[in-house]
Amino acid sequence: MRVVSSVLIALLVGVPVAVAQSSDVTALSEYLKKLPDAKPPAYDEVQRLALAANPLGCEDHPHAPGPGGVGSAPTRQPYLWQRQGKPEILEDYERHRAFYGCLDWHSSVNSMWMMVSLMKADPKISLAPAIRNELDRHFQKSNIDGELAFFKNLQGPGADFEKPYGYTWLLKLYGETKTWDDPDGKRVAIVMEPLAKWMADQYVRYLQSLDYPVRVGLHPNTALTMGFALDYASQTHDTVVMKVIHYTAVRLFGNDKHCATNMEPVFGDFTSPCLAEAAIMGRVLDKQAYGRWLDEFLPPANSELFAVYSKEIDAVHGNNRDTTGTDEEGLPNAHLIGLNYQRATDLLWMAAGLPESDPRVPVYRKLADISAKQGFDKIGAAGYLGTHWLATYALMYENENNASR
What we know:
single chain, mainly alpha
């Protein structure tokens, strides 16, 4: 749903109402022919089972008692491990916490989203009994009561634990269960509702407090988390969250020009700051206004400055310390592998935001194929540092790819 008209965006950010100069159709057509063919693996039952194995393998493994990944708040908050001297795991945590598995809180949340999304797409998937068992174990009233009490009682430097990234993943999960026509989906949505409503309210306040966007290629990225929250708002018809996202995106990004594509990627990034911003603007502006904004924000798709999005990402060289703390020499950086999927998904959103006749559309879609294939080629290379979340981002790409083609 796009509620910002082309005239309104022109008034808000100073973009001329007249149509901006379009890209060179002939040059883009020739560039498209030169791009290599790339076919990500078919999204079939075998692929779905392979993806589902990842969250099933980590949801019941409690977080380690140490710091979380760079870019997110550390798990030293007393969420699962209590620190009266030697760290001790929370007594009865299976009853008073819902998202205690995988490597960290937000990874547990997005892994739950992944399992629900897979079940909605394929209710008869052979792993359905195991997925339903996970939902039953983690989503009882006592679990969500414990989560809500924990977050409401956070104070001091750790009061923003998992905000905004984890909050918006929780909202995205709630939206997925709310729209799942299934007894388990309906039960989980009812149980989750108090936590989701509280986090939605907190997220609105967070967006309204921002004077500047966060543009890093990691968890706090404003455009990235807006996308997750907009998924939730669209699914649940939360008009308050939707309107605040639309207004804030225009307020923070409407005047942006000449994004520094030549500065990407930074070692350890799992999202492209330029493409994440372009993707969210493609979702809030109407197609004509978006095309004009994009003319100013990104270089031509056939230019050298845009070629970074067709080149393979080197996930090994540079700083060998992984963002999750591993420094094994030669270990691929899981974030850079995941960057392939986020780029691909953003490129699809960008294509969807433009008129179908825009010559950039087939180029963006072809670049999405190239990036996604690179991700699938490396998805298992980073071990547990990757499997606890990479499959989730692969599924987000698959979902958008299926919806847009």
